[in-house]
Amino acid sequence: MLAEIIAVGSEMLTPHRQDTNSLFLTAGLNDLGVEVGFKTIVGDNSHHLVEAIHNALRRADILILSGGLGPTEDDLTRECVAESLQLDLISDADTVLALQARFRARKMEMPPNNLKQAQRLEGAELLPNTNGSAPGQWLQTVIRTADGRTHPRLLILLPGPPKELKALFAEEVRSRLEDLLPQRFLARRVLRMALIPESTVDARTAPIYSRFKDIETTILAGHGEIQLHFLCAKDTQEEAEDRVNHLAELIESEMGDDIFSSDGESLEEIVLLMLGLRGLNLAVAESCTGGMLAERLTAIPNASRNFLGGAIVYSNELKSSLCKVPSKLLNQHGAVSPEVARALAEGIRDRTKSSLGLSITGIAGPTLLDGPDADKPIGLVYIGLADEEDTQVKRFMIPGDRDRVRLWATMHALEMLRLSLQ
Amino acid sequence: MLAEIIAVGSEMLTPHRQDTNSLFLTAGLNDLGVEVGFKTIVGDNSHHLVEAIHNALRRADILILSGGLGPTEDDLTRECVAESLQLDLISDADTVLALQARFRARKMEMPPNNLKQAQRLEGAELLPNTNGSAPGQWLQTVIRTADGRTHPRLLILLPGPPKELKALFAEEVRSRLEDLLPQRFLARRVLRMALIPESTVDARTAPIYSRFKDIETTILAGHGEIQLHFLCAKDTQEEAEDRVNHLAELIESEMGDDIFSSDGESLEEIVLLMLGLRGLNLAVAESCTGGMLAERLTAIPNASRNFLGGAIVYSNELKSSLCKVPSKLLNQHGAVSPEVARALAEGIRDRTKSSLGLSITGIAGPTLLDGPDADKPIGLVYIGLADEEDTQVKRFMIPGDRDRVRLWATMHALEMLRLSLQ
Predict the structure, then answer these.
(1) Is the ipTM of this complex over 0.95?
(2) What is the pLDDT of residue B368?
(3) Residue B400 forms contact with A (CB below 8 Å)
(4) Is there a contact between A322 and B315 if contact means CB atoms under 8 Å apart?
(5) Which of A285, B118, B166, B233 pairs as cysteine with A359 (C-beta 3.0–4.6 A)?
C-alpha cells in the first residue's frame, strides 16, 4: 500500500512555516504498514491543487490532504477534490446545525462563509472534529486511468491545525484504516547513547543490525545523542517483540555502558531514576550553563523527589556567597579551573546537604569577559562531582558555538553522573 | 518569477527527517523577488523524480533540486534531469581531478562510484562545492510545452546536506540570480510582543498594515510571543526603509508598551540591555521553572555584565537555606503563595547584593507532590520582583501542560521585569 500526502496552504510556501503534519501522518501510516511515496506542498491555488490531486491519484492507493478546510475563500480543498473526481458537494444538514450550535455557544453570529464547512463530497463520510469547526472527510472511490483500467482509491481530508489533525487521525482515521488494511503486530525499541560519534556507533552496530532484515533500523543523531530505533512487524505481537528484543540484546552487549537507555528514556529521566533507586538526592552549581542543567532535570515530572535545586553562579561573588568557594582560589586559578569545579561541587553539596553535588564551569564564548585566552580557550569546561567520599573533576574541550558548548556541557555532566551511579 | 523546489531523498518520506533546505531557499528566493509556488518531496525513485521534474518545468521559471547528488546508486538527480530534458551527461575532467585530489588529501582510495559526481549536464555550468564532494549545477535551457510554445527555464541542482547547500547558494547561486533578475532593494523590520493573543494583535494592527499594500506583513505566533514581520521592496534602499519605518511607527503608536522589541531583539536581550542602560544587575530565585529563566538570560552573550546568577530552590529546604525564606512562612502559606514569592525575591536580592531580585514559584504539574488542590491548581504561578524600594508580586493562571506553564512563567517574569524598567 502506498500513500501520498498533500499539504495545502500558501503559508507553507514562505520561509516561516513548514508542513509538520506529514511527519505525524507518516508515523501513523507506517505503523499500519503503509509507506509514503511522495509529499507535495501546494498553495491556496485551485489550478495547482487540482493538478496535484490528479497526479497523486494516478500513483497512490491512499491520498491524505491536510489543510484548506476553513471557511474562507482561500480554503479550496473540498472544491478541488470535487473537481478532480467530478463529484458534487452536498450541504450536510447535521453539520450546519452543529456549526450553528458551535457559534451560539460562543455567543457569536455565524458568518455565512462557514456554511462551506458543511459541504460533504458526494459519497464521503464526514469525520467529526471535536477541536475545531471543519469536519474531516473519508472517501472511498474508484478512478479510471488513461489505459482504461480502474483502481480503488481512498481520500482522507483533514484540517490543517496540528491539534485538530492529530485528534481526528487518532479518533476517526486510524480505526477505519485498521479495518481496511491487513492486521500487523508491531514492536519497537529505542536505544540511546550520549556523546559518541554517529560513525562509531554505526561502525560497531551495523554488522549486527544489518543481519536482521526483518527489522527496520534507523539511526538518529543530534544534540549530543545517538538513537537507534528498531521497528519490526510480525503476525503476532510476541513474535515481533522477541525479535526486536533479541536485536537490542546483541547491540547492548556490543555497546555496553555507552547505552544509557534501552527503552527510549531521556538521559535526565535515567539519572533521576538511578538517584531514586539509590536513595540519593542531587544539587547543582552551574556557571557557564547558567541553569540549563537544572532546567533539563526539572523538565521531568516529579524531579523534586531526587533533585533539590542549586545555584547559578555566573559571577565570582556568587561562587563564593552561594557555594563557599574561597575568593583566594578564584584569584589564584581563575573561575574556569579544576580547583574551582571541585570547590563548587563540594560547596553546593555542603550548602544544600545533598548526597551529591554536581558542578559545571567553563567558557561558552563568544564573550571576551573573563577569557578566553590561549590557556583557556572557548569550549574548555570542567565538571565536578562530589559525594560523601570524594570528588572527581573532569576536563572537556567542546567544539562549536555558545549554544553547543552549553548543551554539550550539560550532556557531559549528566553522563558523568550516570556512569558514577552505574 | 515563479520557482519550485524539489527535495530528493527517501529519508524525507519517513517520520524522522524533514526537508528544511526549502525554508532557507525560499527566504533567499523571496529576497530576490522570486516566489515559491510549489514544493515536492520525492524519494530516491527515478520514475517519480522524472515525473516531478516534468510537472515543475511546465509550471515554473526556476526549478531548484536539492539532494540526490551523492555517489551512490540511490543518487539519481543528475540522471533524472538529463532524462527529463533529453540531455547528455558529460564527464568533467577538472571535477574528476578535484575528486581524486580530495580523496588523496584524506589518504583514501576513491571508489569508482564517485566518478558519477563529475557528470555534468550538457550545457550546464558546475558550481564548486567547498564543503563536500558533489558540485552543484546551473543550467539555463528552453523547454517546449504541449501547445508548441517555448519557455526559458533555469534549473539549479544543489547537494542535500544543509551546510553544503547553504554555502553553495550563498557563494555561487545568489550572485548569478542577481545578474539574471531585475535589481530590488529590500527593507525589513520585526516588531515583537509577549503574552498577547494573536487575534488581539491582528484586530488592532490589521487596519493599519492592510493599508500598506506595498509591504508584505507576516504575523508569527508561538512560545508566548507574537512577531510582526514587514518586508518592502523598492527601487532604492532609502525608499524601502522609509516605508517600513513609517508602518512600524504607526504600529508602535497603536500597540505602545506591548511591543518589547522594534528591531527583532529577543525579550531576554531587551531586558539585559535595559538593565545595562540603567546600571542595574539581577539575580533570580526559581522554583517551578527550575533554572529556565536563568538559562534564557545566560543564552545571551555577555549576560554576565548584568546578570549575577541565582538559586534554584526546588525543595523547601533550599528556599530557606539559599533565599532565607522563613520555614514558618512556608508552613503557613505553602511554597506556592504570594508571601513566598515575595520572600524569595527579597531573599535572593539580599543574599547576592543584586539591585533586583526576581522570583518564580508555581505549580507546573502534572505531579501531585506538593499540590495541586482546589486552591492551588496546576498553572498557578506567583512572580515576585524586589528592588531597593519595594517588592511587587503578581499572580498568573497559565493554561497548558508542564512545558507550557514553565515557559510562560519565564515569559511573564521577563515581561514584568521589562515593564518595571520602562
Answers:
(1) no
(2) 54
(3) no
(4) no
(5) A285
